[in-house]
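As a warm-up, study this chain.
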Amino acid sequence: MASTEHSTPLRYASDAKPGSPNPATGSTSGDRAMPVSRLDLHQPRPGLPAEQRGRAVMDIAEQAFAKTGNWVVFYREILGKDGVVHQSFPDAAEYADFQKGPQYAELQEMVAALRSQDVSKGDSSEPERMITIRLPKSLHDALTEESNDLNLSINKLCISKLLQRIESRFVPVQQGRRRGRRPGPQGPRKKPASDQPSENS
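Now compare it with the structure written out below.
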């Protein structure tokens, strides 16, 4: 039976190749791991009713807002998958309810305020990932016009849209097999048949 293990470590396409220099440290070792900026924040108190948890989240968010001018750090600590909001509302239904409330909107305003003032490069706080999406020309044209109207790059506009909660009724149902590469680190791509050595070589 063929082994499913990868001889090459999985990595994102946007990661530097092993052995390439880390621009932050000059090191050429390994996968250029970089230190991640963390904030010293109060931790969510377990066992609080949902309404009190919302207020506690806002208290911690205000603490984080005062401690950093970097929107990536704020987002990761408060709204990221391991952030304060998810820790405070681990139940999916309660998390969805919190997203619909005014406190979540206030958190989004905090992120927007930090993004407006933050001139640092995104990868100064944590590694960046790149995604490539296919979209019709008409949608691209609309995004271009909207970004021009707002005096934003398309990249910033798309990040702004991705930061927003989207209702499930606006998400299409997947039909058939899922296409494209799945999220997460990828194994080495298979070489085209023309690149494979022939049996006679």
